[in-house]
Amino acid sequence: MSNNILKFAMNRNTSVEKINGGNLRSVCRLRDTFTDAEVVIEVKMPDMEICAISGYFRHAGWGEIEDLDRRLQAVMGVRVAAGMLKIIKGLMGEEEKIQQIVYMVEECCHGVILTLTRKVLLKAPDDEAGKVSFYSNMVKKSIRLYDRCAAFAKGTPLVAELEAEKAKGGA
Amino acid sequence: MFDFMRNKVVDVARLDRETLEVHGILDDSIYSLELCFKVNISDLICSGVKGRWLRWTTPECPRAIDFLHEAEGFCLKAGIDNKIHKTIGRKSCRHFANLFIECGHAVRETVKLLNWEAAQKENPEITFKQFMRNDETASMAESSPGMDNEKKELSSPSGTNKPSPKKTEHKRNAGSLGNPSAKKGKFVIDMHVHTSPASPCASDSVDAMIQEARRIGLQGICLTDHNYVWSAEAVQALSEKHDFLVLRANEIITEQGDILTFGFYENLQGITRLADLKKKVADVGGFIVAAHPFRGFLTFGADDVGLTPDSAMARELFKWVDGVETLNGKVTETENNMARDVANGLGLPSTGGSDAHDISTVGVYATAFDEVIDSEASLLAALKQGKYHPVVFR
């Protein structure tokens, strides 16, 4: 047995670009040992609603998904926002055969969110004290960040100001 | 020019007869990180989870590495993704969780390949397509697609999650309802409360939520568990047990987002088209409210993407709803303000609710009614009359 030879390999690339009218086009491409697939979505700004979608999916075992276009069109009009994952799954289906294409739609949407997140993060200062202040203010402005990951966990420095304000009844 | 790029690479090697070695890299415009671990082929249990950051954002992100060990012992069978989100995503970092999910998928695909290779030893002619068709048939026999495991395991607090066949309207004596000291002479109800286990995302029981609501001086709460219908009998029993007004509502997922329904007790599952929901609710004389219509993202909000109240008013969502939740405890002040401006602009009534998933946030926001509410019927009548407004309560 050659333990240095791969059994399985996967490459997934997601890219986002601005297109005409300020809308965003997000493309997710997947190539793995079994699969060659692509999903393209266009997101209308500033409503952040999916206004166009297309894609293809080829799997060595399953072949193509016969009703792929119908599945993809089901998410037209869905807003890229918190809670979108359950909506996308619910509209497209959750059978094993369809799971990867659903995930790719989600990845396209995450790409859009991360594109906008990146714009915010570019405003962060370079020095450590400035960063602490920047991210402390961020969690105060967006309470959903609080205790959502290790960086913003209860008792950590980035949430100290928020917790102090909470203790005083100010938040 | 691309504004954002994310690349993920996952590879799986067979270390020995029993073990797979998995290596994943996530590298995007913001983050760069790596994961590696081993998986036992026979039971898909992972071990030796290690990770490292190459690029990150906050000064505290490196702490995420300390929590990756939480994935030790995870069984990477299909359906593990939610657990990965809840443990690695919440305790460590959502980007490590994202990569871990990719790795899990890669492991399952590798096992298919190994099983096919094993099948070929018995039948050298079997193609991968034939093998997959057999595998699919076997999987279908084992599970019911379209239903996630958490829902399957959920036991109804009332013994059933089916709507009550008979709508038993119960009234409570307003004088004995919980706290008689209504703030500013109003009757204040938290219109948006989740409980565990009816809402898998909630962490406190219905009894705990009611006790807290009573303690802080609310006059009532509406149970809005996700796509979950409480029986009238169960809710009446809770009201009597706690001497407190407990009313049934629902939070239903539509393609336009979450919708709070009042006076509607059909047990809808999955995603319902908003137009269909509106018709169903209208047919039984109910009332629907757009829940947190501008709930945004972790680092930016609707205002940051250039959405204005005027442009937002044109959204399809607002053509169907009877009211708008303009104070929601899970969104930012800016997002609530946007909802308020849109509701005012469209002349739609506003409600408030905590959207509490644990006792610490019950009653943060609520709705103050001009009249005493003592039943689901009186709540529905008050909602339609528009004699209420959202309040900051706690």
From TrEMBL, chain A:
Domain of life of the source: Bacteria
Q: What is the name of this protein?
A: Uncharacterized protein
UniProt organism field: Desulfocicer vacuolatum DSM 3385
Lineage of the source organism?
Bacteria, Pseudomonadati, Thermodesulfobacteriota, Desulfobacteria, Desulfobacterales
UniProtKB/TrEMBL annotation, chain B:
- The segment annotated Disordered runs over 137-182
Coiled-coil region: none
Q: What is the protein name stated in its UniProt record? A: Predicted metal-dependent phosphoesterase TrpH, contains PHP domain
| Family matches, as PANTHER family | EXONUCLEASE, POLYMERASE_HISTIDINOL PHOSPHATASE N-TERMINAL DOMAIN-CONTAINING PROTEIN
User: For the PHP domain, which residue ranges apply?
Assistant: 190-235
Q: Which GO terms describe its molecular function?
A: 5'-3' DNA exonuclease activity; 5'-3' RNA exonuclease activity
Pfam families given in the database record: PHP, PHP_C
Recorded superkingdom: Bacteria
